[in-house]
Specification:
Layout: H1 6-21, H2 26-33, H3 39-64, H4 69-81, H5 84-109, H6 117-134, H7 140-169, H8 173-193, H9 227-244, H10 246-256, H11 258-263, H12 268-295, H13 306-316, H14 321-343, H15 351-374
Helix pairs in contact: 1-10, 3-4, 3-14, 3-15, 4-14, 5-6, 5-9, 5-12, 5-13, 5-14, 6-7, 6-8, 6-12, 6-13, 7-8, 7-12, 9-10, 9-14, 10-12, 13-14, 13-15, 14-15
Length: 375
Amino acid sequence: MTTAPPRADAEALHGVDESVNAPLPPAPEASEERTGLPSWARTTGRVVVAVVGALALFGLITALKGVNPFTAYADMFGSTFSSPSKIGEIFVRGTPIILAALAVAIPARAGLVNVGGEGQLVIGGVAAAGVALALPDLPGSVLLVLMIVAAMVAGALWAAVAALLRLWVNINESVTTLLMNYIAVDVMLFLIYDPWKDKAGSGQPATPALPVGARLSLLGSSRVHIGIIIALVITVIVALVLSRTSWGFRLGVVGGNAEAARRAGLRVGLLLVTAMAVGGALAGLGGLTQLAGTEFKLRPGFLLGYGYIGFLASWLARHKPLPVAGAALLLSAITIGGDSLQLDSKLPAATVNILMALVLLAVFGFSASRKAVRS
């Protein structure tokens, strides 16, 4: 039996990787290119159509609960978009969600499933808060830089553990990252209930507030901070790195077929670890943006649910970095509007989770049906 040359393997695998990350066969993609629409525009269009369908289905559910769906949607829209300050909240909440979603998208390129964005966000916030508590006398700008570095390093190391466990003892990373979420939260709770608890506070478990100089700058007079610009710039950088660099290409080769990539001479283990570590670093940075830009202290419930929403956003956008940012902001708007479902429409607080689930399933179902037709 003979084997194809390594270069042929790599070229063939590159085609497999593209079908994984953009699940459209080559011939249909060529026909779509004749429409003049770029890939991100087609993806966005599919998301919009699917979201409208999900909203229609959710309207039926609210009607069954005795709530007028048009009134519920009007209240949601008003609570989310009625003023610039409310629109700004979408970006405030969406900043860590974007970074958590990228923490899923990058490992996905290499065929990894990172469910640990929640824990990586939290551990990034914990590391940043630890630096602030350990070095309170540093100038604010210096302290902020050290907090950023600590958050990213902590997130990277936390995520790399899952990749190493997969390589050393063959434990699926989706299981380890999910379980490590609970460990990260427990670490934070231990710290804020005892050694890091603010002794001069109100008695509630929380760390002392960050110095003003170590906080992220606000944009104008709103609550929106510079973290959203950082998140969007990083999104563009990630898109370019994955599509234009040899590292991004190699990740795609590994994601297409790890065994063939190994035969082609690629260092598969190193690529898996670096993909997970880079994703974890971005999630850790997301924890820093929430700590230094919004909450200024660790407390119970810090970033609760943000990592899971980021996971949904990445899958919603099929792990494509630019659409991932849009999906993250969309889900951020839904979570903010969901508060209206509880306050104005008197629906259970978990109702917003049903809405997000319907959106996700609608996008998946719509994409799957289009792929089946083209096959």
